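Session log. Operator J.P. requested a structure for one protein chain; no other inputs attached. Running the standard single-chain path with token output.
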Amino acid sequence: MKMTIKMKKSLVFVIGFLWLVTGCVGDQQRLTPDEINSNFEVIATLKKELTAAQENGIDVFAPEGFLEAKGLYAEAFHMAGEGKGDQPVYLANKGLSALAKAKSDAKHAQEIMWEVIDVRHRARKAGAPELFREEYKATEKKLADANRLIEEGSIAGAKDLRPSLINSYNEMEINALKKGVVSLAKASVQQARAKEADDNAPVTYRKAETELNMAISILETDRTQAEKANSHAKLATEMANRATEITELARTFKRRKYSMEDMILWYQKQLFEINKPLSSELDFEQPNHIVVRSLHNTIAELVESRKDSARIADEKLKRIHELEAELKGVHNKYEHEMSDQAKRQMETDLIKQEADERFRHVQSLFTPGEAEVYRKGNNVLIKAQGFYFPSGSAEIKTINFPLMNKLINAIREFPDSRLEVSGHTDAIGSAENNLPLSKNRAKNVADFLINVGHVKRTDIIVNGYGETRPVASNDTEQGRTQNRRIELLIVNE
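Structure written below.
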């Protein structure tokens, strides 16, 4: 009976896995895993690539190719342990080739199944994998089956599965939104109680319990009021988390044996840190309410100045549009008197002048500390080094919202463009961690542009390059700040 490709790939993996687990009986001393990784660099590389590929979902979007590469790694690892010459290197290189093809197949599958991927992302974000474990697992298996059909060339068969996959993920998302927020609130309140927040932050903890009980009561009496229940549940989560943080802070004070004076000095230091980026100074010789009011007024003035900058930018944009109208009027007036060559030259000049005005307007949106703007032909590159991400985190903090809004305004200057969002890190930390971190940061920025800026998801490409494309030296803080950036390429060609 002729063995299919799928059976061959499965057999390779099974054999490799059995060899890896059981080993071969013999007198020869086996190499340790550390010795294998040290002596066979290509095997260590394949292992690292497999881990990264699984984190990026290659095992879901190209399951057969990923399984083949994993089986070849297991076989290479086993043979390396037995010291079998060049065979481990050959198998590991073959595994890298199989994994490269799997990545290509996964990209093709993602292009075909983009609608499924979109609703799947929303379901995961809503907490479906934790709340509906079995249902989610079954749907993931069905998605893998669809992607396997794409690997085998049966595109039509995969497309037939799209509607049911979309329905399954969509239903889980809706149910998770109804149920998940309350479940999260319950877990947060339970965690706060386990941390003894009811003793250390009793007022805040009781507010969390009250809001949670309200949410549960609403769902029990009228399930159509899920949005109202979720509102109370979200507030319960916030209060519970806040109570937990108050508890941790109180324990810190107790552990360090802080006096009341120590705690007030600590509090003033926090105000000082908040005020540090501002030009004003805090006078702690004044009563506390005056110090807080001074800080409030300084921040309010900064916000107003940014509003003024936005107003000036809007006025410049208005002038650009007026100029466009004037130039169009001149063009219409003299069009019948001009030769074809002169008309083409005038149209070229108008287009160039409009592009120059748009580019200058985009440049005017950003301060030097926020971003640098360049032209690349008809395209515009924005190197935004003004982003703040906590160390090792990809979460977009509210401090980044003004810069995000400026990026959105820049994109709106080019309504028919495509976008390439790329993340970059400095060289602090390992390259292995920096690469996925940079991609996650770029992905979160892209999601913000989609959800807030209403950019079409299909118009955005996301990349992460880790520390591999520095624009300055990583030996200085200034250089590292420039290297920690998000680049947005607005493609108009």
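Operator note: The chain has 19 helices and five strands.
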